[in-house]
Amino acid sequence: MRLAIAGLGRMGMNMAxxxxxxxxxxxxxxxxxxxxxELVKEGAAGVYDLAELRSALSxxxxxWVMVPAGQPVDDTLSELIEILESGDIVIDGGNSFYxxxxxxxxxxxxxxxxxxxxxxxxxxxxxxxxxxxxxxxDRQVCEFLEPIFRGxxxxxxxLYCGPTGAGHFVKMVHNGIEYGMMQAYxxxxxxxxxxxxxxxxxxxxxxxxxxxxxxxxxxxxxxxEKAFEQDPALSHVRGxxxxxxxxxxxxxxxxxxxxxxxxxALSLFxxxxxxxxxxxADKVLAALRQQFGGHAVKPx
Length: 300
Description:
Helix 5 (98-109) links the parallel strand 5 and strand 6 (114-121). Strands 3-2-1-4-5-6-7-8 form an 8-stranded mixed sheet, with helices on both faces. 51% of the residues lie in helices and 13% in strands. It is α/β, with parallel strands linked by helices.
């Protein structure tokens, strides 16, 4: 199939490459033209203005948007509304909030443009391994797009999750689970790092070991193995952890639904905590311990 990828960042560029390798025709667009030129050298067509997509694609035009969640998606869709025609299809493959997907579908529908929300997991490894796709929208439209999904995903690697918003909702929960898993590994390895056996432990080999039949084996452990192999003490990594927003949304959804999700909530708060050096809350704790028990405090 022929489609455009609008947004050639780390994910969008490799998704375009995987589609090219699997026989699809890709038209690349990126705000900075260097990325588009790079993809053209690899066999794609390129446009340097979104308006050019109108003539670069045939009806029904398919545009897969891979830009950061939030206002960049809305800005891109506003431009596409002026370019595309009734019956054309827009896929949002970013980490968008599912309620935004519902809102955007309604706006595009007024112009006859069909909308699909696709949660995409796979990171920088998706090019070789494939991307796990969680898809929401009109079922018939999603079935029409299946050749594209098959081109991106490994075998059994995509699923129609339901009507508009379902794809991004499932991806949101996926990322919430990911937060909890990563936090558990981080805490366990921290306990080992502070243990009396640290000098005899090779963290990279340990992570490799745990992936050999252990009940905690996972791809995340493979990545931890690689990280420790490259930097055994992680001395070049600062303990400052960002969040993309989906962990927050998952916790908010749990609150709205009255679902107990303490692991995901605490893993999100741990990320917030990582961004505070000499946190005020810790100062309060130290001061209270001094006041009620005369415990020593460390001066600034």
